[in-house]
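Section: Multi-chain targets

For targets with more than one molecule, the full set of components is provided together so that the structure can be written out for the assembly as a whole rather than chain by chain. Components appear in the order listed by the source. The example entry contains three components.
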Amino acid sequence: MKEKYASFLAQIVKDHIVYLFLIAVLIIAAILSPQFFKLQNLFNILRQASALGLLAIGQTVVVIAGGIDVSVAAIMQLAGVTIAEITKAQDKLVFVAIVTVLFMGTAIGFGNGLLVAKRKVQPFVSTLFVGLLVTGLRLLVTKATPSGGLPAFIRFLGSDSLGPIPNAVIIFGCTALMINFILSKTTLGRSIYAVGGNPATAFFSGVKVDRITIFSYMLCGFLAAIAGLVLVGYLGYADQNIGIGYEWDSIAAVAVGGVVLGGGRGKISGTIAGVLLMTVLLNLVLILKLSVEYQFVIRGVVIIAAVAFYAGQWRWKRLFLSKGV
Amino acid sequence: MVTKKGLTAFMAICFAFTFVLFSSFALAEDLLPGMVDTTKYKKKGPWLAGRAALGDTNAWMTMFSLHFNYGIEEKYQKDFKGFKVASCFWNPVKQIADIEQLVAQGVDILFVDPASEGALVGAVEEVYDMGIPVVLASTGVNTDKYTTWVSRDNIKAGFLYANWMGKKLNGKGNVVVLMGMAGSSYAEDVLRGVNQGLGAFPDIKILETAYCDWSPVKAKETMEVFIQSNPKIDGIISDGGQMGLGAVEALLDAGKKIPPITADDWNGWLRMAKQHNIDFLAVSGGNPLSLTCVQLATKIMRGEPVPKIVEYPIVTFEKDQLDQYYRPDLTDQYFAVHELPEAWIKKNYSK
Amino acid sequence: MTGSSDFQKTSSYGEHCVQENIVLKIDRLSKSFPGVQALDSVSLEIRKGEVHAVVGENGAGKSTLMKILAGAEAPDQGTIFLNGQQFQSFDPQSARRLGIGIIFQEFNLIPYLSAAKNISLGREPHSWGWIFNKKEINDAVKWLKEIEAQIPPTSPIHWLSVGQQQQIEIAKALSLNAGILIMDEPASALSASERDHLFALIDKLRQRAITILYVSHSLDEVFRVSDRVTVLKDGKLVYTRPIRHATTDDLIAAMVGRKLDRIYPPKAEKMGNPILSVKNFSSKDKLKNVCFDLREGEILGIYGLVGAGRTELCKALFGVVSSSGEISLHGKSLSKRNPSAAIKTGITFLTEDRKNEGLIMGLSVRKNIALPSLDMRSLWGIINDHEERRQTGKITEKLRIKTPTIENDVYYLSGGNQQKVVIGKWLLAEPRILICDEPTRGVDVGAKMEIYSHLRELADQGLAVILVSSELPEIIGMSDRILVMRNGRIVSEFNRAEFSEEIILAAGLSETHAHSAPDKPVTATAFQQHLAAKLGGAKKWIVQADLVVFSTLLALIAVGIFSSASFLTNYNITSILRHAAALGIVTMGQAVVMICGGIDIAVGSIISLTTILSALIMGGSNAMILPAVFACWGAGFMVGALNGFAVVKLRIVPFIATLGMMSIVHGIVLLITHGPVGSIGKLFRYVSRGSVGPFPSALIVICFVFILAVLVMNKTVYGRHVFATGANSEVARLAGIRINWITFSSYIVSAVCAVFAGLYLTSRMGMGDPLVGRGFEVDSIIAVLIGGVPFGGGKGNILGVIAGVLLLSVLANLLNMWNLQSWYHQIVKAMILLMAISIYKGGNSSWPLKLQLPK
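Its structure, encoded as tokens over all components, is:
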């Protein structure tokens, strides 16, 4: 019995290790760059992190449900350039454009979900290739040229602030709260954990596994589209350079945040800590005046470390299993 | 025995000989140093043109391509029967394959905006040796085997940036440098010019140099970090208005004052400069040089000599001349210094 | 294992064995698993050349005994002597070396290889790695002839029937000089004629003094084929006797008949109204026309041997599998057949496999219990936490589930308590019918009792319980009525008064061949075999799935020729070849990794690294060409080794391991340089731009690489082993193949191929470029996939992959020719990829397990 308590404790520490790392990294950052803790700067960092944060929230839901979505950055980029292309920096068509973009993201998510749930393709692989397809579509839509500026409303969403808090952060925060509520307090959320924890058991318990899976991808696609709007709103310009590498950052944030890459465990709060950790880490590279390429190395190392850390868990084999009962 | 008759004959022969010599020189004199003899390329038109392009990944490239299209489809349309374009998106290996395939399709003349001066050498030389004229646009290639090369004097551009900045800052201050694509001689040349120019102002320090691919997005992200680690930035030398835009956005976000910035004639930059009353120097980007390429192509195909290297002239202006160049009725992607007819401008850049 | 004091014993036992012609002696073998004593001091002597049957009902210990003999398990106590020598270690290799061959119900064969290749797996006749195909085939023919099997030695075995595959297994065992053959339920999957063949074969083997251990449920088979029979019951040996001294009744009586050591709750006084009525209920071909009724307050037991269809019945009732026929609940017909509909109408199902189908590890007791009935405690989707806690707490108390709190992870509970959680979760769903499949399996006696009383209590409250169990005492003790199933039908029904272990067991055993598997008309198979035989030789390679690739390739070429006059020009073809060269080289490496079951995403960045390193080191001088090449090999070797290490030793799934590596190498490359650098020695240029006679060097490079790949993969031991490891690493391991080394080396091969591709590109460009490699990883994977090698490997042929490479190159050329922009290209490629992976629907669902190499 004692050992069970010990392992219980170890489990708690393991689950919350991301907060320790975050605090450590924040301290390092503050030491190296004294103006780090200025409110303006912190809000700036949060604003920069918002797009990634939205992606990571969507990714969290998919991962808890036992999958993974590598196409999120492609969806985000497509959303960003599409809104610029449709509105041509004018406010006239903004709302139509927003609806179109959100619909697009959800539809791509639906496609992802179908492939995984119905055709039983491994999620990592299928979303990777859907991402390639979406990137191709993006290049097609923009003819690989820059899309230009954004309408004022989008800039309002991404850049401006209501009072002291940037809008992007508000959007991020509200979304996080909402999804957290769904995950922890609703039957839908409970079903998502069940499907990720053990799809066979969930199925035998009456959970509609396929529907939940497809839903998780649709939600992820939807949030990716919103992330795209926030991102280009913040950057002020949409070209082919937006959001590069964000899918790996979202996976790293999720993995590091304790959402086990196999499903059934994890919380939004962990993801948020993971997002902040990734953002500050990547920022740290530049503050330390290291070449930006070190960011690639960091991404790779973080992913491998987080995965190896949890690799003992049997659960995450399922990431590459076809989703079948 | 030297007779009078013999001497005259001798002198006549010498004279004739000299005459022939001189006249051949005179004829050859059309080929001034720096000119290329293109008689072997003479071909009856209309001709099939091919372009191994980089890909229109930024606004400069887009207008650059527009000038190509305008030249071939309108201005010199009688001379060309077709225009095949292959884009490699900055991938040299793909560009090599593109060149080979354009040649396989039987183009009469090849335009290349090279993805890499070194990697393209073999491909360009092979085409040249096959007897197809090669026109290099903007970036060059490390070989002599091309017909003509048109570009902006990038060293001069860099010098102009540095010189202006030095004077603006009264010889003292910290600057940040934003360049285009790393590893290309384009950026190297600009940097060389910058350093040359700053040589006259020893108290000006370069805090950071970054390569932002002429993307406002990258420039903004980069500037954010620079601002964080360098609280006092006195000036920004940016090889392009797009990067300038991004840099300014970052400064505005951080609540900092906007220092003097060098940029180019990009409309988005001009809009930003007007909006925030920015002190700037615009050095034209030179994308219309592609039209010059097309013009030279017509000459080549007619066998007329062309210069080996052509410099496209640089235009500069500052904020007091802003309104002469800024077009608020057009999108950000427009460049003020261009050679397109208004119809084309309206079609492509109207809001 | 045993001390030196037993040394004397050993030698005298040895003599004793030789005298009595005893080939296998088992002495007081015991083995227990949590909750059950599988073998209890079993002692047995097997004579050389006899066919010795081992019978017993489910759980008697037959499988455990066989597994120990085959080296798959180690006993807790006891010793085994083979030909007088004591077993030292228990692992499959040792067992095989000692001459024990075992033929399980799941064959240890590699599906896409031929009979000859399977037979020689792990011991291919070769010289320096080059396999002697002819000898291999001749050997196979020899062994197949020995057992009089009519099997073409060169057709892939997945075209053969079950019976034929079994024959190959037997031939393989014989070729390994098996002196003892253990057969576990060999005849159960065979058709009538195949069964006869098998028996004839067994007779033959007996004549050759090969000992056979025959484990079976079918007493008929036992009587037909064996010399002596041993009966096991509850892990103990009951008796061994010559078959002619045994009768069916004796055997059955020996298999059952226990003291009642448990107390079952008193049965129902009276039964309520019929609640469930099932008529003409069938499911696929596992359930045939089942009819029965179920009454309120009744516990209906369903008995049958493994394979009788009991679990299938439960699943069909619950809606997990599709079914036809009628189910009516309280007179109302149930049309929607899926789990959530079933739960809503009050039918619940406690599965056999609680770990994998009954519980969600990682979730708390509370959440597990609450799962099927979430809707009952939620308003508009929001769960009433308080109510949930209250109700789950109550159930936990009622069932006496031992756990510190209900928030504890179920993972930490004991087997019995876990089972109670599963019961609890269904109770909370307010069921009307509870279907239990082996509810007390793996549960200690105390918990068993509690479960029994809970079940009876539920029945008394008006529920109806269907109890599926293999334990005769349990089912007799608990049920009010018992149905016996056999081969998907209900064959008998017994009332309480008629209960007796012998009768019920007898009803469950198969008695006649009447329901054996029909002789499958081997139509498609025959055609393919016929076709293959006709085409013979090299062409048979193409008859497989590669047909699609080749025809698409030809179609594309045709399109090219028709759409442009310049397609077939020397220049254009050379251009295609030059482009295909780099892709072809790297794809060969990727094919090796993927056939082995892995994937390598790092190849693109390895290519970039190679171009940079080689160009920098060469620095324009010819003298430095060789050092540069060696340096690049070294770097590639290292990266490949790191990949292999991460996959094999750290057991990180290949996708992630190579992805992480890609990121790291990419970062390193960009740290070295941002843009193109370096330059090559002039001679090096000839690699890509030279020519030998009329042939461009690209063509020579391609031909060389392709031919090498074909030879290695199809004709060498290494290639064969790669294939086997990818197809079924367990089978490969048992055949003696060093799967860890093979997997590790495949990543090195892939990295080195990437290096060669990079060197080629360096020659083409004349310098190095940090971004040149991007896209190669995706392209090489696409080429392999469309070439017929699915994710998970073990299938497909390198020729198909070559066709895939050419297809992609021609496609690129065509797209360029039509002046289509590169994003169309990307879209087309992505769509091809997506189609390819969705065609291989759930293709290899055991893929991840292969990557997790066995401990």
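Chain C has four domains: 1-96+180-185+213-255, 100-178, 274-511, 545-851.
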